[in-house]
């Protein structure tokens, strides 16, 4: 309601209309004690126009809503219905249901226990029953809560700091002001309002069982973390570092990690680690597990593995403490390294929302790291001497820090401090042995409509017999990253240079961008290079490779064979390549999008290990494809087929506009097959067919490639072509057939109808302008 209209701009939805017409986006999100309003607009040059820049116009409209909103009664029901519609969607989302389950477990004296998102009943019916006027309530809430002393503002744009500051002052300085605290606005305002923690001793050791028919049950393990439990002079910094380490260690999927054990036992499908802040100084450490069918029958075993992992790896002894010290030192190194080489072109709206939220928190311990978004250990920490290997004094400092972290982990990630929210069909609840629910009956939640019951957890940890240990040192971490003293000096120098630099907006240097150059088009491959010299591209690269078999005939069976082969490769590489993701590498393997027999490989990240990742991928493809019979056991093959079938079946539930787009592709593209055909051929696919396909999939290939970034032409001959030669038997173009699109008759209008389970309708247009190489004909069509 606040962004519908204002006294200065009374036109309804003017803010929304203006942003969308300019090609931008907008949103508002409430999370706990904070509500964020934000918008994003494309950058336009205003050099050749006398009109007010669109960003300035939108900023004036936007700011007016926080000075004099109208809260027009005519639009109240519209907004309530929009909230109710969003709530209806939330009722089908497992993560929303399980998060509401956590609210039901919380202390009833804490606001987190309440239903928070609202629906038609809570926003309309209840107010009518109480005889309250909703507009009067909105005005009262606005006057009490929307004051400048509890607001933060972030503006980002391609303008000088002087210009951005001027925009901020012009648009927001007239909002009524009160004395604002300089640090920790959230704590100073909200903490006095709370009578207790959200999860006290009486709420711990509980599980909420939510009955819902789902094929992928969700298990959320929560470990409450109260900030005043963490010692030290810089509490907030220590808290954030500990939470980040929790996510890194317990979210790890490399070899010997707890999650790899769970994957290999086929207990989990996916894992996530989160650290949600549910209220001021009430954080949670969360391990979110999507369970397989086998996992639902072994929840006690999952808990046994988790707690044994924590107990063994963080037990206080010299060997463990030394390992933890090296691990957290390298974690700090990687955080510094990633920040130094961070992509500056990240999404502006998310960055502004994150920064505005941080400005309301404790800035005393973390202001130095505000732009990064989370802190690192550095010379501001008492006794810090750089990375673990830099000196004996540094080793001693990291050893003490490791002892602190080990103690925190051992005290926090325990059965006694655990809360569980679990959503699954009721039939799976009987497999959980550690429950005490005999006298408890199911209840129905009045807001989300699910059946649930709350039980005590009676779990007693027992040793796990398999091998368990901390993640090994990250093999993708460059040696330069281990020198934290040097990294911090580079960051400090960059900061000082920024302070001393001009406040004018720097102009983009067009010389940094170059067009792709074809450096080789010999028989069998086409190699392109796009060199970039900007600071954002320094020491980074992107590699795209497409290998297409020139002898195999495209078919639905061959396409499915390739998908199964690549699935097996990805599964084998997950543990090995997971550490590379921490260094901001990314990689992907998928079948040719054109339907022919081929594979596409994408790799991006720092240049120094990019070609090592390529070698690992090509080597794994070679190993599996050439010795499929020996390496791939029948059980692994069956699981790969199941994963592919589930992926195909999931297409039945995608939005209607995606169904329409895919349907159009099936009709128009030469080598594409309908979902029904794919499922039918998949049922008929056997082990020997895939094994034979894999053996010959790379006998003869045509290769096309693009290498982009801080690269040289010689990278192909030194690092790429020799690696591909390990996999491809012969490079050739003679038998390569370019897949084509159906050529529609001139002036023909074709209509294709189809059905989708999605209740919404979708319409997709395809306009064919002519043969790609016939430029004159295409120009005439447009004229």
TrEMBL record:
The keyword Zinc applies. One of its GO terms (molecular function) is metal ion binding. The keyword Hydrolase applies. Residues 1-90 form the Peptidase M16 N-terminal domain. One of its GO terms (biological process) is peptide catabolic process. InterPro entries: Metalloenz_LuxS/M16, Pept_M16_N, Peptidase_M16, Peptidase_M16_C, Peptidase_M16_M. Residues 135-316 form the Peptidase M16 C-terminal domain. GO terms for cellular component: cytosol; mitochondrion. Residues 403-680 form the Peptidase M16 middle/third domain. Pfam families: Peptidase_M16, Peptidase_M16_C, Peptidase_M16_M. It comes from the Eukaryota. Keywords: Hydrolase, Metal-binding, Metalloprotease, Protease, Zinc. Belongs to the peptidase M16 family. This is Peptidase M16 middle/third domain-containing protein. It comes from [Candida] arabinofermentans NRRL YB-2248.
